[in-house]
Amino acid sequence: MKILHKEELKEPRVKLGCPHYCKGWVCVDFKPLDDRVLNYDVYEYLKRQDGNIAFIKAKNLIEHLQNIGDFFRLCYRALKIGGQLEIITDNAEWFPFYWPLVYHLGIGAHASNEYKDSMNGSRHYCIFTKLHLKNLLEYYGFKIVKVNRMVRYGYARLYARAVKSPIAPKGEGGSGQNYPPYKRPRELELSSAPRKSEIESDHVRK
User: Fold this and answer.
1) Per-residue pLDDT tens over the stretch 11-57
2) How many CB atoms lie within 10 A of CB 186?
3) Which residues make beta-bridge pairs with 164?
4) Cα separations (Å) of 58 from 7, 13, 101?
5) Closest by alpha carbon to 157, among 191, 189, 133, 122?
6) Tens digit of pLDDT for each residue in 149-162?
7) Which of 46, 76, 141, 147 is the most exposed place for a label (fewest CB within 10 A)?
8) Cβ neighbours of residue 119 under 8 Å, at least 6 residues apart?
9) 148: closest CA among 93, 111, 108?
10) Short-list 192, 194, 190, 195, CA closest to 43
11) What is the pTM of this model?
């Protein structure tokens, strides 16, 4: 499978969790700072897509998500075969994240004190090592191009680039066999509310 540079990929190219408009991109954020940015929760936006996106970029986003599994499943579904996912996120192996200091340039951002972003009030829910990120991407059906620690950020960030493979993802209960033709994964239920049958069975047990 040929890996194209992101500039070579035909639109749509999507930036998730991006409140500022960027030319040549579809930008999506739940608190946009520009009228040209789509006002969506990232899960809801991805649920509306179905194999039509060429490139997804998520910078400083996934550490703020409460359900990372649903995010990767939806990205896989939204991308074309051969479409690419680019992620920049905090590196769990960067120890200053855990210094219980006043938040400054990332120091203490994952310490015992509560981190709260001053711009949109979001919080951190998870953090990843290189191995964790690689394992998750592979589990949800992506072929890994690279996962690196970023020198630009003093190794405080991880950079991942992955391609949607035409293989049934394990995260969707796939067997690892080729689709042909592309088989749409099942609809995702993002609600954490218990199902009616679960409530009834729990009532019976009591």
Assistant:
1) 689 999 999 999 989 999 988 899 999 999 999 999 999 899 999 99
2) 10
3) 142
4) 16, 11, 27
5) 133
6) 988 778 889 999 99
7) 147
8) none
9) 93
10) 190
11) 0.73
